[in-house]
Design goal:
about 325 residues; alpha/beta; Rossmann fold; 2 domains; four-stranded antiparallel sheet
């Protein structure tokens, strides 16, 4: 084991407890208007939205007036708007389970390409999950460091505990303000969950042993922590169905590297979407502590909006 790998694995123990029993802090905002609303104690629901036309091209010339936001079917007033994408703190989770054995170089090349696409103001952390879960202590935009992790610390083989890895990734970003993104390079279904030794389903997420983290726990944490979840892999039909649903609800996307291993196009498409997101913010009229459904549309014929579908309305 290299010294770097020892550090990667050791940090998992620290991160496992971080944020386990605390709520993530409010996401940082980019405008003075939002900061003023935060000081007044009002909840501001932030939305990061990517808009594409019928041909799949990103639309980047929209204004605040072009958007409609529905909270539980009721129009909400968009009080904050930005057409420029704010910096992101992200974790790239790389599936190194048994399914990775035959796709090692494909995944490694794709991860390298993703690092090369990191925007100057963004920061990325790398986590691998398989026989071991190795979470880098480094959240950085230093591409030399990130490439070193990818070149030296990918070890295929073992199960694929995607839910535990996702929980640890989100915990590692719990103190980060602003846009928070989880990217899962998935090669198959979750295979690390031990149902026989886990408590009953009514046990709270934070009271469970880490090995017993479920898809529903990850969904709740993604929703309450306002994470955008993305998935990339060679065949979305073989991805865990729960992962695809979590991605959709969070406003992320699934990117298919294709049977012909078109990794470059998938990675570039993912990176392009992360660089082109509008920022919307509104204050919910009803604060009842419940999960609210969101619908975001634009007044461009044929356009589609990818954005979060739910949020938790904080109690007054």
């Amino acid at each position: 084991m290299t010294p770097l790998r020892a550090a990667l694995i050791a940090v998992v123990g620290v991160t496992a407890g971080l944020g386990a029993t605390q709520n993530p802090p409010a996401v940082g905002r980019q405008t003075g208007e939002l900061r003023q609303e935060e000081r007044s104690g009002l909840q501001v629901v932030d939305i990061y939205a990517c808009v594409r036309d019928q041909a799949g091209r990103i639309i980047n010339d929209l204004t605040r007036e072009d958007f409609t936001v529905l909270d539980q079917g009721t129009p909400a007033t968009v009080s904050v708007f930005a057409a420029t994408t704010p910096p992101a703190a992200s974790v790239l989770l790389i599936d190194m389970g048994d399914n990775a054995v035959g796709k090692y170089h494909e995944v490694q090349d794709g991860a390298r390409r993703l690092v090369q696409n990191v925007a100057p103001d963004d920061r990325l952390r790398i986590e691998t999950f398989g026989q071991e879960i190795a979470l880098s202590p480094l959240l950085t935009n230093d591409k030399t460091t990130l490439l070193r992790v990818i070149d030296e610390e990918l070890w295929p083989g073992g199960p694929a505990p995607v839910w535990l890895a996702s929980r640890l990734a989100m915990n590692s970003l719990v103190l980060e303000k602003g846009r928070r993104v989880i990217i899962v390079w998935s090669l198959g279904h979750e295979t690390g969950h031990d149902n026989a030794n886990c408590p009953q389903s009514n046990t709270t997420r934070d009271a469970k042993p880490l090995a017993c983290v479920t898809a529903n726990d990850v969904r709740e944490l993604a929703r309450s922590g306002r994470f955008g979840i993305y998935a990339i892999g060679p065949d979305p039909s073989k991805m865990d169905n729960d992962l695809v649903r979590i991605v959709d609800e969070s406003g992320g996307g699934v990117f298919d590297t294709g049977h012909d291993a078109d990794v470059a196009a998938a990675v570039d498409g993912l990176a392009d979407e992360l660089r082109h997101q509008y920022v919307l913010g509104f204050i919910p009229a009803v604060r009842d502590g419940r999960i609210h459904q969101l619908e975001i549309t634009v007044n461009r014929p044929g356009a589609t909006v990818r954005a979060r579908r739910t949020f938790v309305a904080e109690d007054k």
